[in-house]
Design a protein that fits this description.
Layout: E1 9-13, H1 17-29, E2 33-37, H2 40-49, E3 54-58, H3 66-75, E4 84-89, H4 93-101, E5 106-110, H5 114-147, E6 150-156, E7 161-164, H6 166-171, E8 181-183, H7 184-188, H8 193-209, E9 213-220, E10 226-237, E11 243-252, H9 254-268, H10 278-295, E12 299-306, H11 309-342, E13 352-358, E14 361-366, H12 372-386, E15 390-392, E16 395-397, E17 401-408, H13 415-431, E18 437-439, H14 442-461, E19 467-476, E20 482-493, E21 497-499, H15 501-510, H16 514-534, E22 542-545, H17 548-552, H18 556-566, E23 574-579, H19 580-585, H20 587-599, E24 603-609, H21 616-621, E25 626-629, H22 631-637, H23 641-656, E26 660-664, H24 669-678, E27 682-684, E28 692-693, H25 694-708
Parallel strand pairs: 1-2, 1-3, 3-4, 4-5, 17-18, 20-22, 22-23, 23-24, 24-25, 25-26, 26-27
Antiparallel strand pairs: 6-7, 6-11, 7-8, 9-10, 10-11, 12-14, 12-17, 13-14, 15-16, 19-20, 19-27, 19-28, 20-21
Helix pairs in contact: 2-3, 11-12, 12-14, 22-23
This protein binds ligand C2E and calcium ion (CA) (2 copies).
One calcium ion is lined by residues 486, 545, 577, 607.
Amino acid sequence: MNEHTPRARLLLVDDDLILRGMATQTLRHAGFEVTAADCGEEGLRLFADGEFDLLLIDVMMPGLDGFEVCARLRETARGATLPILMLTGLNDTESIETAFRCGATDFVTKPINWTLLGHRVRYSLRASAAAEAAVRNSEHLANAQRLANLGSWEWSIDTEEMTCSRELLRILGREDSSSRTLTAQDLLGHVCESDRHTVRRARDAAAREGEAYQHTFSIERADGQRRTLHEQAEVQRDVSGRIVSVDAVTQDITERVEAEQRIHQLAFYDELTGLANRQLFINFATSALERARRNHGLCAVVHVDLDRFKSVNDALGQDGGNAVLSTLAKRLQGGIRLADVASVNGQRFSSEVVARVGGNAFTILLTDIASNEQAAVVVARLLGAVAQPIEVGEHSLLLTASAGISLFPRDADDAAGLAQKAEQAMYSAKKSGAGQHHFFDEQMNASTRQKLLLGSDLRHAIQAEELCLFVQPQINALTGAMIAAEVLVRWRHPTRGLVLPGEFIPLAEELGLIVRLGDWVVQTACQALQRWGQAGIATVPLAINLSSPSFMQHDLVERLEDVVQRFGIETRQLTLEITESVAMTDIDRAVARLHALRGKGFRLSLDDFGTGFCSLSYLKRFPIHELKIDRAFVRDAANGGVDAAIACSIIELGKQFNLHVIAEGVETAEQSAFLVERGCTAHQGFLYARPMPLEEFEALLIRSNCSRL
Ligand code: C2E
Ligand code: CA
Ligand code: CA
């Protein structure tokens, strides 16, 4: 046994010389190092100077007695936990009690049993070592718990009190609280409103039903800070199976949760701009394309690359370059939203995403676009936003970007493919100079470029008086007399020459210019009628084509009436042509509108008849004067077949409903003869006259006036 405490150092304090000598001998023999003092004062002095593992102190001493020495030792830091054995008289219970009160660890009675003394000392040393280890362990545990942010509580079912560990109080921000017991309500008060109900339910179920649980919730600390906790609870039962307590460990996992969020942020977002990164873009686009596939929607991927960005970095340094990139990222995002609200035909993009995919490269997804051109319009707007001056410190920069556009489903079927083709298109755009955008498909490039150019020219065309009217006579095939004429708009483009309405009317509709254009046509036609009236030139009614937006204007009737009055002509001098498809879009409204127009005296013609889906029942409701057989049926009428049959039935229909029927696109004598034979004598077409400029038509009117005279 000696080997366990070979070097234990003892301090023996006793005034009895013989006892001191024998005890010293015995204990040295037992393997201890012994220092002896003959009085309390000497004992304290020796203790102050040396290192000891155990003290043996005689109770009865002159001067400072053993109790006093023990009490003083206990007040010192080193003496507080040392084992102290008191030497007392046999059966001196009073001394023994006093000794314990003064802090003695144990006692040894006199006369001393010398054989046992060594064992007694050894036992005391071991007990003290164990106690010390226990203290160390609990310190370790507390330390470990603190490091792990691990608190615990124990909820006694009987007392309904929750005893919390120090660490839990620290987690709750209540380390200052004097008591470690809280009420269940108190503890629940820290749980955030949104989680409180769940936490209460779980804790109650544990207390009542004995259900263990674990969950994560948010708390608000005493200082208002929010933290995320993970709590795991178990139930303790007594031997009879009754639940006595719920015990839980509660870990503050805020840092871990934040780290996970940060990892997610790093994995899917660009740190500098906060935009999505390539990975998130692909994920997002993949699901958007899936939706588009189901709905047969059109999408575009745009790759935007800043031109000559390296020179910005060189001039401003990396921080300056970063500031520029952040600004541009915001503009691109803003540009998409703008497009969203102001999209050309009022349609909204259902989703969009802007991603940073390289140092100075961005990828954008446009979904639910109405047409390929619309993608180009949005991209032009984005490049315009990039080109606005950028203020960095006292510098004002002008930058441009090049863009490539790929289209879904036309260019690729998946997000990665579209991104790659958009990037390829961007390189081709870059080659043609800074600030350009290109489609992946070359053909698309050509036609869109033309359309876009034409679109911007068209805005000026109306003010610049580049529009002009052509007029095409309508003839009575039996007599050759002109019975009316159709007004057809043309555009004298300064560089492209005469542009036909087939090319610019759809564009005008797309750009929202069609109503203004229509107004101009009506006014110019009325002006001509006024001029001829004033000049005494007999004229025929003029037919004017009304676009759908014009026809749908709520104040159409008033506006038309107003123009007619302004030019002093009569409403019956105008025939308004609306196409079958316009009339069919909103039938009730169309019927009401047609009634109103007819009430004012305008003639009404249903254009392109036969192409749409106008059924007999609807035709009955439209208060029109005239049916215009579409060119397509006239073209093939003379050859028999289905088209001939349709032409014939339209003519029949007209007779039944007592409507004037006119055939357009009559190019040959055969067609004319066929129509006349079926009873349709009103013809319009190249056979009689091509559309001619207004001035030429005026000359024709004058000539026929003369010939009538
Ligand atoms: P639409 O109303 O069906 O006009 C008749 C078209 O047939 C005109 O074409 C005319 O030039 C063409 N045409 C006439 N006779 C013949 C023929 O014998 N053979 C052939 N192949 N074609 C013939 P245009 O002038 O190019 O106009 C095309 C369309 O543009 C018009 O079709 C009309 O829908 C629209 N449009 C023309 N002017 C206006 C306008 O002022 N306002 C509106 N909203 N639309 C207009
Ligand atoms: Ca027409
Ligand atoms: Ca027509």
